[in-house]
Amino acid sequence: MHFSANEYCALFGTYSEHIAIEEKIRKEFFSKIESAINYSGG
Fold this sequence. Notes:
Number of helices: 3
Distance between the termini: 13 Å
C-alpha cells in the first residue's frame, strides 16, 4: 500500500506518541516530514 505524503502524515498523527506532542511543534514536525517525503519523490 502506498500513501501520499499527506496521507502518511495523517496516519502518523494517529499514534499516541505523536498526539502527545504540543500542537505547534507537532504541526511543524509533520510539515517537515511531508516536505522530506515530497522532496524524495513522494
